Amino acid sequence: MRHLKTPRLVLAAALLSAAALPLPALSAEQEKREATIIVSGEGEVAIAPDMAILSLSVVREAETAEAALKANSAAMADVIADLRKKSIAERDIQTSNFSVDPLYRQDKTGDGNYEAPEIVGYRVTNGLTLKVRDLDQLGTLIDAAVKLGVNEGGNIVFTNDKPDAAVAEARKAAVKEAIDKAKLLTESAGVKLGRVVEISENFARPMAQPMYRTTMAKEMSDAAPPIAGGENTYTVTVNITYAIDQ
Predict the structure, then answer these.
(1) Whole-angstrom Cα distance, residue 215 to residue 220?
(2) Fold classified for 51-107+117-159
(3) Which GO terms describe its biological process (predicted)?
(4) Every domain range in the chain assigned CATH 3.30.70.2970
C-alpha cells in the first residue's frame, strides 16, 4: 500500500510551493493615486421680502377656567372675523398655541415657611400664526388686532414665498467663484485642471429675525406701528473637487 502515499506527498508539496510564491506586484497605475484639488465658492443674493409670518396671542385670566375660556374665545372670534374682512385667506390663518393653565398663590406663614400652593384662577392662551402676503397691511393688522383683544405679541419674520430664482442666482455665483479659484490655483502651481470628480452644496435659508415682541395693551395702539421689511439674503456654498492632469 506504500504506492498510495506518493500522490498525497506530491500534492502537499505542490500546495506548499504555491503558498510560498510571492503575490504579483501592483502595477504602477494601481499604486498611483489620482491627484485632486478641492475648492469652494460662495454666492449671495439679497431680495426684498414679499411675505411676513406674524404671531399674535389672546390671553385672558379669570377665577374659573370656563370664564377665562369664554372671554378668550370671544376676543379671538372678533380678531379672526376682522382678519377675514381684511382678505386674509383661511389657509394663512392657523392656531399655533392653545393652553389652559392654573394660577397659583402661595402665602408665607408666620414662621417663615410657605403654605401649600392654592389655585386662585386660570389663564387661557390662544395663539395665531398668520401669513401676511400684502406687507402694506402689516401695521394696520397689528393695530386692529390689539384693539380687538390681542394682548401678547409674537414675532414678525420677513420671508419670501418663492425664493427659487434668488437661490438659483446665488448657486450660479458660487459655482463661478469655485471655478475661478480652481483655475487660479492650478495656473499658479503650473499644472492643468482636469475633470470634475465631485460637487456638493450647502444652502440654508435666512435665519428668522424676531422683529416684534411685546405685551400689548389697547391704549398703546393709537396708530399702526411702522414696519420695515429690509432684505433677505440667500447664501449658497458650493464645493468642487477637480482632478489634476499630470
Answers:
(1) 10
(2) Alpha-Beta Plaits (3.30.70)
(3) DNA damage response
(4) 51-107+117-159
Cell numbers 422683529 correspond to: 211
Residue 230 banded pLDDT, cuts 50, 70, 90: confident
Record the cell numbers describing residue 149, joined without a space. 383683544
As a whole number of angstroms, the distance between CA 57 and CA 73 comes to 11
What is the per-residue burial (b if ≥16 Cβ within 10 Å, else e) of 129-163?
bbbbeeeebbeebbbbbbbbbbbbbbebbbbbeeb
Beta carbons of 158 and 49 less than 8 angstroms apart: yes
Q: Which CATH class is domain 30-49+161-218+231-246?
A: alpha beta
pLDDT per residue as tens digits for the range 65-91: 999 999 999 999 999 999 999 889 999
Q: CA-to-CA distance for 158 and 55, rounded, in angstroms?
A: 12
> What span, in angstroms and rounded, lies between the C-alpha atoms of 224 and 140?
5
Region(s) of the chain under CATH 3.30.110.170: 30-49+161-218+231-246
**Coil, strand or helix at 78:** helix
Please state the pTM of the whole predicted model: 0.67
Enumerate the H helices of the chain as residue ranges.
5-20, 28-31, 65-85, 138-148, 164-189
